[in-house]
């Protein structure tokens, strides 16, 4: 898919909304039919059917096929339907307009300090722990594999991470990638938690990315991979000030 990676999966977005006092959330599926909808059809088939009374959009909001609908069109529609329409001014940080593209770039480049400044919170991913291929256990470095959405994450490589399991705070090292040394194909997020050896399958684990350690790469054999992981663990512990 050519779609950019999502910064926040829908579940995390919904949880974030709830924390900010939003009572109800409707997520529209952006499929081919929705993408090809004309601005007028969007107004009549979506907004009118939702019985919108007030609508707030970004100052660069466009809607409908080929982004043909704009704020002026919304205002005219709102006037005719007695719907209050307003827009939010551009939010800037250090003189630059904050956008999903800017945030995604900061995350993909491993600039988590900037990402936190832009997001207003630390960049993290929360997922359910699922069964993997158990390779980590065979080399003495057990990992928790997190279920991944169809959309890939905007991070790739090896990272020092802080984790949250229910109310427990843990530290570890995470790899986001395809695991080329074992001929993996699908993206996997796996986390080795320090000083932790419990069965947590089915539980939800939140991963906060602190610092990128290195890019993912293919090793000639499992022993070389194991040696590198131990080096990565030392770097992560030093980064997290755990040594």
Structure, described:
It contains eight helices and ten strands. The chain has helices spanning 10-19, 32-35, 39-47, 71-81, 100-108, 112-119, 135-138, 222-239, and strands spanning 54-58, 84-88, 92-93, 96-97, 124-130, 144-146, 157-165, 168-177, 188-193, 204-214. The strands form three sheets. A six-stranded antiparallel beta barrel has the order 5-6-9-8-7-10. It has a two-stranded parallel sheet with strand order 1-2. Helix 5 (100-108) runs antiparallel to helix 6 (112-119). The radius of gyration is 22 Å and the shape is elongated.
Question: What topology emerges from the helices and strands here?
Answer:
Blueprint: H1 10-19, H2 32-35, H3 39-47, E1 54-58, H4 71-81, E2 84-88, E3 92-93, E4 96-97, H5 100-108, H6 112-119, E5 124-130, H7 135-138, E6 144-146, E7 157-165, E8 168-177, E9 188-193, E10 204-214, H8 222-239
Parallel strand pairs: 1-2
Antiparallel strand pairs: 3-4, 5-6, 5-10, 6-9, 7-8, 7-10, 8-9
Helix pairs in contact: 5-6
End-to-end distance? 42 Å
Give the strand order, joined by hyphens, for the main sheet.
Answer: 5-6-9-8-7-10
**DSSP E strands, number:** 10
Mean pLDDT: 89
- The low-confidence parts are none
> What string, H for helix and E for strand, traces the elements in order?
HHHEHEEEHHEHEEEEEH
Helix content: 25-40%
Q: How many helix segments? A: 8
User: Mind summarizing the main beta sheet?
Assistant: 6 strands, antiparallel, barrel
Structural class by sheet pairing and helices: alpha+beta
Rg of Cα set: 22 Å
Characterize the overall form: elongated
In percent terms, what proportion of residues is strand? 15-25%
